[in-house]
Specification:
The chain is α/β, with parallel strands linked by helices. It has three domains: 23-158 and 235-303, Vaccinia Virus protein VP39 (Rossmann fold); 163-227, no CATH class; 320-397. 41% of the residues lie in helices and 18% in strands. The chain has 19 helices and 14 strands. It has helices at 27-36, 59-67, 80-92, 105-108, 130-143, 163-176, 181-197, 201-205, 207-217, 221-228, 238-246, 263-266, 272-275, 282-292, 310-318, 349-359, 366-369, 379-391, 407-414; strands at 48-53, 71-77, 98-102, 116-122, 144-155, 250-255, 296-303, 321-324, 336-340, 343-347, 364-365, 395-397, 423-426, 431-434. The protein has a seven-stranded mixed sheet with strand order 3-2-1-4-5-7-6. Strand 4 (116-122), helix 5 (130-143) and strand 5 form a beta-alpha-beta unit. Helix 7 runs antiparallel to helix 9 (207-217). The longest helix has 17 residues, at 181-197. Keywords: Methyltransferase, Transferase. Its EC number is 2.1.1.-. This is Class I SAM-dependent methyltransferase.
């Protein structure tokens, strides 16, 4: 069967990508995460520019623009229909600070323009051809400002390795079945289910694949089509990604998923001493991926990484202001439970309760929080506690200013649309919070 007329470089585009919001791409989140990692992040108190490569349905870019009036936002995608839809929502919500660009990234890589302080992308890196990945790197090399941050999310080995056989079956079924994308995807998933239930050796040998299939079955068929049916779908090795970005002058900082920067909460305890013997970078991150069976990475890079000395790092942390998010407990009766990639991890009450108790009274700076025990003698503990609580959806860094935002106008535009996730838009943090705590 010939390629579908609506393919874009082997990527299925005849059905809309569902609306997804990626909090890890928001400016305040990236600023706070980079600061926690000890680098000088772009200043959010001054005008800045942010760009999303592969913006899809545009929800992340829309929320970013609505909740961050000091920023200028650009959403780029090769799907003209989705770009037009995002542009219409933005215009109706009065988002004059969002530019929606219809362009193949291979063409966009040749565009001149102002530098970006943030370049973000989710999923794209593992879905597209080598030529498009090269274009993404060219855009970073050409347009990322000195000190600018790149956040790239992608499916990774080894957690996604066992999906390769299932993905190929989905892709081949899509090529040979009739009907629209949703019906083809539904039929292909039923074939996988028949194989799993019928005792196929692959699923017997890899029980984790059955759990992943169960998770896929809970997602809309349109989401599965975009995630898995592309001709170039391929999980990535973190070592390759780190070296690719190093080639365009961007140093690896860590994860935009803050808990993954804390081995004590994301690596099995017996492996933590061994991890400390490994040099940072490709080797250590590959080992961490094996330790966590990592299937999705959110890597954070910086052009000309601006490492802070101990005093400057503490000053930068002190300037951060944090607030409790809706639904955060005001008191802790016992330890916290974090449901992580390695299973449930206990967060000691004595470490987390002082933060939650204090923020229940209102936003406070890092400097104010670290006057309290047990952080008064160990600010590093406070840094880790705030990263973990941010990941858990309980606290968040605030914006440095409170200029009038367009969050209410965007919320009114999104409310009647089908398939929009339940979000509370929160201009004080320049982001949105899911009404279900993320894990």
């Amino acid at each position: 069967m010939s390629a579908r007329a609506t393919d874009i470089d082997g990527y299925m585009a005849d059905t809309a990508y569902p609306m997804h919001f990626h909090r890890e791409q928001m400016p305040a989140w990236l600023h706070a995460t980079a600061t926690a990692l000890g680098v000088r992040a772009p200043d959010l108190a001054r005008p800045y520019r942010w760009c999303e490569l592969g913006s899809g349905a545009g929800l992340t870019a829309l929320v970013a623009a609505a909740c961050n009036p000091s920023g200028r936002f650009t959403a780029v995608d090769a799907d003209a229909t989705q770009v037009a839809r995002t542009r219409t929502i933005a215009e109706r919500a009065g988002l004059a600070n969002l530019d929606c660009v219809h362009a193949d990234l291979r063409d966009y890589a040749t565009h001149d323009g102002e530098s970006f302080d943030f370049i973000v992308s989710h999923g794209l890196w593992a879905w597209v051809s080598d030529a498009v990945r090269a274009a993404c790197l060219a855009i970073v090399e050409r347009r990322l400002a000195p000190g600018g941050l790149v956040a790239v999310g992608y499916m990774s080995h080894p957690g996604a390795s066992q999906l390769q056989g299932a993905q190929r079956l989905l892709h081949e079924a899509n090529r040979h079945l009739e009907g629209d994308t949703v019906s083809r995807t539904t039929t292909a998933l039923s074939l996988l289910r028949d194989l799993a239930d019928g005792g196929a050796g692959f699923f017997a040998e890899h029980p984790g694949a059955s759990r992943q299939l169960d998770a896929m079955a809970r997602e809309p068929a349109a989401y599965i089509a975009h995630e898995f049916l592309g001709a170039h779908w391929r999980p990535q090795h973190v070592a390759d990604v780190i070296r690719d970005f190093a080639g365009v002058g961007c140093g690896f900082l860590g994860s935009a998923t803050p808990i993954e920067n804390i081995d004590a909460l994301s690596i099995p305890g017996q492996l933590q001493p061994r991890m400390r013997t490994l040099p940072p970078g490709p080797l250590a991150e590959t080992a961490r991926d094996l330790a966590r069976n990592q299937s999705l990475r959110r890597d954070l890079f910086q052009r000309d990484a601006r490492r802070l000395d101990e005093a400057a790092h503490l000053d930068a942390l002190d300037a951060l202001v944090f607030a409790a998010l809706p639904g955060a407990p005001t008191t802790l009766s016992g330890d916290l439970r974090f449901d992580t990639r390695i299973g449930p991890v206990t967060g000691a009450r004595d470490l987390f309760a002082p933060v939650l108790d204090a923020l229940a009274q209102g936003p406070l700076s890092f400097a104010q929080l670290r006057t309290r025990a047990p952080y008064d003698t160990a600010p590093g503990l406070l840094n880790q506690a705030l990263q973990a609580l941010t990941w858990a959806g309980l606290v968040h860094a605030c914006l440095p200013s409170s200029r009038e935002a367009s969050a209410d106008a965007l919320a009114r535009q999104l409310a009647p649309l089908p398939g929009v996730p339940a979000l509370a838009l929160l201009p004080a943090i320049g982001s949105a919070a899911s009404r279900q705590v993320p894990r």
